[in-house]
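Limitations
The structure tokens in this dataset are predictions for the assembled complex, not deposited experimental models. Users should treat interface geometry with appropriate caution, especially where small molecules or nucleic acid strands are included. An illustrative entry is reproduced here so readers can see what is and is not provided.
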Amino acid sequence: MIDILHHLGLGFIHVFTMPHFTALVVGLVVGMLVAVLPGLTLVMGVVLALPFTYGMDITTSIILLTAMYISGTYGGAFTSILFHIPGEPIDVPLLWDGFPMARNGQPAKALGWTLFAAFTGGLITCIIAVSIAVPFANFALRFDVPEYFAVVVFGLTSVVALGGTSLVNALISLCFGLWLATVGVDQIYGVDRFTFDVPILRDGIEYLTVMVGAYGIGEVLSRLETGFASTPLQAAGGKIATELPTRSELWSLRTTFARSSFIGVLCGIVPGAGATIASFVSYGVESQYGSRRDKLGTGIPDGIVAPQVASTATVGGHMVPLLTLGIPGSGATAVILGAFLLHGLQPGPMVFVHESKMVYAIFASMFLSVFGMCLLGYFAIRLLIKVLYLPEAITSAFVILFCVIGAYAARNTITDLWLIVIFGIIGYLFERFRFPVAPMVLGIILGPIAEQNFMTSMISYQNHWTIFFTRPISGTVMALSILALLFPLIRHLLHRRKLKLAAAQTKATAQTGG
Amino acid sequence: MPPPPFSSGFETMDKLKASAPYWVTLAISVYLYYIATQISAPDTGGQLGPDFWPKAVLGLMILVCVYAIARILLFGRYGANATLDDTLQSEAAANDPLETEAQPEQRYPMLLIAGTGLTILYVVVFNTLGFFLDTFIYMTAFMLIGRYRRIWIAVIVSLIGSLIFMYVFMKIVYVSLPIGSPPFSEVSILLMQWMGIR
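Predicted assembly:
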């Protein structure tokens, strides 16, 4: 423990150097702007920032992206509470109590509760992430190639299963991403695969191109089809300020804070179960077990604290499997993994041995990001909220410009521009036909790792595919993967049972009434 | 009880429409699988060759597509599972009175076609017009297609945006953006001289 604190202290010193601290501040501001701006999503923001990290050193770039990620989970709360516009799906539960509280004449109080909830969730997640990362990494040091393959499979299957859309569509998206990763020269035999005699395809398809195209241009095209019809602003009333809750008010919600933090961290650690699920589950749990569950939805702080604490608490949880195993659990962490790979570093347990200075600088920056985003939220929100009035046609034109430059800057070739336009159209089609983009992105990033570990395992164990199931760790992880794939079926059965029960209850009530 | 397959003309069309994305995906994956069988594998000494992994991935994709098509054709949409998104949306609607009042989003396919065409055109003339002129024209046109009607603001914002991006990426980040072919390159060269870009 002392060792961890010592390294963390050094990490703080490291973050306070000029380039790192600048990246932190810029990341916090941009992350919050992206969360507030209409038509922009948190993941899109992180993707668009990625090309700007080419010239930075790896620590600076990860600090920038992580700061954006953390402040992005908080920024959308303002628009939800004040204007009934959820910046991200994670902010939807904030509409149910945050907006009514603001409409009841307490917008400053609602913002105060959100601020404190984000602060608590952020702080707890950072503490837990720092505490469990090293044991996690030490455990991962025992892994051999079959275990790595199993872990990658678990990461992919859980993202597919918990992704929100149908399992079939998510699996197709994943397979498409895994196939894209095979384009180019094969790593083991040096043979061309799917290059179609196009020289540049021998280098493979850059995952950056896929991400920028699908998340950036694809999203803009989807919004363009709706005519950039943003929800009209309907201010909840009162001036925009923040009033922090008192100590006694906070103490009365201690159970909600603890419960939601636990849910958030847990949802963060499980790949795929991200901030949106955490936020909804936490609100749902509050409505089942909260002491004031009967008043939920009328504008009480419990309904603000539960989703906000949980969504911010996922960040640290996501960072643990990312740093210790190289498995991203969400779109945003997939982009952060992309930044690691762009700088030639594969996250994993060895990173804690060889790059501990960088790892603890990232952890320290997470702590500082939590403080920074709260300060920014408290002092600068009145200014930041003004971006809501920017026409979406203008912001979208700039998004495309960022995408184009980002794709072109990587290799200075027009082919990459064609590729981002193609992936932009594919991203739009995915969105249109409800195929999730995240599994495709994870597929193209994790595909080469999965293939390499699979092929090496097969070579090392004489093509015995059962090796993945007979070794204790890989067998357990593979069993978890199968469970993850069965999860949608279980959820569907539970949902049907709930509907049947509700129908039976309605029928019984009608009969009693009759 | 699920409806009988192909019970009426309307239902058949409905089912074919619903399964269309999967038919397209199936056709693409079968074609790619065929390409994968053509991968020239060297002597692998009894080990799995370079074609194994792509074949496994594409094989899984084919299986999933066949399953999806069969599910739609045999059970229509009645067999579709309630997804997590559906659950979250129904929960949102149940909790939020304003959400239930919300109207379904209107779609403008012509805007989409115009925007996509413009973006393709942007790439086509990227090397001819050069980064600055191409970006300036593209941004202005995109804003207008996006139903922004203050033309002068669109022009000024596009001009400033293109200049800033040109300066930042050519002068600071050292990205070699295209200057275009004559006579359009004259504009880029003039601007580069003003900005001190070599």
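Some entries come with short summary sentences. For this one: The two ends of chain A are 67 Å apart (CA to CA).
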